Amino acid sequence: MKAKELIELLQQLDPETLILVDGYEGDYDTVSSTAEIDVCGPFETNWWDGKYRSCPKDELLRIKSFVIRR
After folding, report:
1. Can you give the pLDDT at residue 60?
2. Which of 5, 9, 10, 43 has a CA between 20 and 30 Å from the CA of residue 19?
3. Within a domain: residue 23?
4. Domain assignment of residue 7, yes or no
5. Residue 61 contacts residue 29 (beta carbons within 8 Å)
6. Taking a C-beta distance cutoff of 8 angstroms, is the pair 13, 3 a contact?
7. What is each CA distance from 65 to 5, 26, 39, 41, 53, in whole angstroms?
8. Structural domains in the chain (count)
9. pTM score, whole prediction
10. Which pLDDT score, from 0 to 100, does residue 48 have?
11. Do 9 and 37 form a contact (C-beta atoms < 8 A)?
């Protein structure tokens, strides 16, 4: 998902809508923080691991991203 897609979705919501993320083991949780980070990927991983990894600033193939943390 790109920022423009997320913005379009969020603009359709009532401004008082609660935003949730997946809980650690199940159910849902509130957002605890957000951050802009550089990642590398996608990589082939186990289904329980993310497909992207943190990436150093000097990596040429880094992808600027925005993470929503639980």
Report:
1. 87
2. 43
3. no
4. no
5. no
6. no
7. 14, 25, 7, 11, 11
8. 1
9. 0.73
10. 86
11. no
What is the C-alpha to C-alpha distance for residues 43 and 10, in angstroms, rounded to an integer?
29
Could you give the CA distance from residue 54 to residue 57 in angstroms, rounded to a whole number?
Answer: 10
Contact 35, 66 (CB under 8 A): yes
In a domain, 15, yes or no: no
pLDDT at 10: 94
- Classify residue 27: in a domain, yes or no: no
Domain span holding position 58: 33-70
The residues, any chain, with a CB within 8 Å of residue 44's CB and separated by 6 or more, are 51
In angstroms, rounded to a whole number, what is the distance separating the alpha carbons of residues 57 and 38?
Answer: 7
Structure tokens that stand for 12 in this block: 């359709």
The residue whose two tokens read 């990927």 is 41
Q: Are 66 and 20 in contact (CB under 8 A)?
A: no
Structure tokens at 28: 């849902």
pLDDT at site 41: 92
